[in-house]
Amino acid sequence: MSIEQIRSETTKDDTLRAVMNALKSSIWPKDLLRYEAFKTELGIFDGIVVRNERIVLPVALRPKALEIAHQGHPGVVSMRRNLREKVWWPCMDRDVADKVQECAGCAAVSSQFPPEPMIRKQMPERAWQEIAIDFFTAKECATFLVIVDYFSRFLKVVEMKSTNAIKTIEALDEVFDEQLYPEIIRSDNGPPFSSEDFTKYCQAKNIRLVRTIPYWPQMNGLVERQNQGILKALRIAKVTNSNWRKAVKDYIHMYNTTPHSVTGKAPMELMTGRPVKDLLPSLRTDPHMYREEGIRENDAVNKLKGKRYADERRHAKLSNINVGDLVIMRNHETGKLEPKFRLKQFKVIKKTGSDCIVSNDEGVMYRRSVTHLRKWPPNQNGTLSDSSTASSGHATASSTTLPDNPGTHNPSTTPPRRLSRSDRNSSNIQEPAAKRPARAKKSPMRYSP
At a CB cut-off of 8 Å and minimum separation 6, what does 394 contact? Predict the structure, then answer.
């Protein structure tokens, strides 16, 4: 970009010609408010409008300046720093942010957005009404089928020699012979749980099967948390040269007989309805215990406290992705050169809370968390770019069974669409209105629980 080119475009720019007339006459029209605010810094040098030592670019050259400043794909801060050294125009910082957001390459390698606020699950009505299952594998020891009850937090671990659907059904049958059949089983999308045999088994036993969102273990966090406890026991057994089977058994007994941090009652006590007797002496001999007195209140209050803490620590906020939006999907392949997102276009066809169903051009549907989606970056002309090199073969198609109870969601107001630079550069569009910064609002500390 040369000085001659800037001088030529300045003479063609109606706004800058009006600015030069205002500088000479000291009479500022109302539509030049954002220039008048800097009138003490503005001047005319050799047919070019300047602000101190920076050139005020005409509208026609601003897209080219943004293209030059974005070579090498710098971030917003670096682009602003580079442009501010040499040029200026009203709302330049906003145009820089738009340019970075519209860059497909930057979108593919950028980090994912903060997660949405947590949706805490309500406590079931009774014990063994709803359970969560998952496989946990320790290569040096064995593979375990981990089962947790959502009401009592009762833990059951079964050592598995094979994890196919038939062996999984046999293991669950042995557990259900002791505890009867639950109403709901919550699992991930592993091959045994997604198989046709397991689906038919649940239908035959009148069990509703709820599968979590792929690549989103937080949706089944209760059983995922138990995997960490089992792993800790196995590590201690290895470092102390102890029997790992006994270590797992001792951990399960300890966990089931210790008051839970959320309910305040031992899982075994809520499961059986009687006080826990272990090797420590106790004066609690009354066989009748109030199983649900205060349990639900403790569960609700502690879950709310945990939600607030987790949402604040993770900077959670509601996503602006809605049904009908075009998005790109998180790339779960590992490798230093692998982008965070694949430049393959998908369309959101259903959204329930943070649970989204997206579809590609071939009609193949995928189920993903909204955190793993990002809006498709538009081009300068406002159209959507096409990427022929992107591939979606790495993604696992979701089951045709949609989520049974993915949770609720309070839809937020869709933010107004920003005008593309081409729209703002057209002759019939005035300068964009200045945007006031939004102030973060928090409730007073005295209202915190």
Answer: 331, 332, 333, 342
